[in-house]
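User: My advisor asked me to double-check a structure prediction for EEF1A lysine methyltransferase 4-like before group meeting. I don't want to rely on an old file, so could you generate it fresh from this sequence?
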Amino acid sequence: MFSFPVSIGDPFTGLTVVYPSTPISRAPSPLQVTRVLQPGGRFISITFAQPHFRKRHYAQRAYNWSIRHTSYGSDFHYFLYVMKKDGVLSSSDLALGQSLHRQPSPPSPVCTLQEPDRENYLFNIQL
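Assistant: Sure, here is a fresh prediction for EEF1A lysine methyltransferase 4-like from the sequence you gave:
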């Protein structure tokens, strides 16, 4: 079985490259990425997906990695996520990852600012 020290890519949307090898044409799942990483190896994802969308997908105990992220850019940001195999998720990252599997709460009732109209205006039009 092969293992690699570094994998760069975005397994949810695009191309992934493992070093020292060649690009993988089909985007692998994070489980496949962590499977081929060496102990202590790093998976680097550079994407436009903001942390409140993407980080909870990466912060899963099953992937057996720690995660950190940073952003770059001034007007149009991109985000760098670095996952280290055999790392430990922080408690906040673990809670964020678990939030992905919770059932959504039911929507709250709609609050209106005025009483509904009870008059039928169409019947009051005289032609």
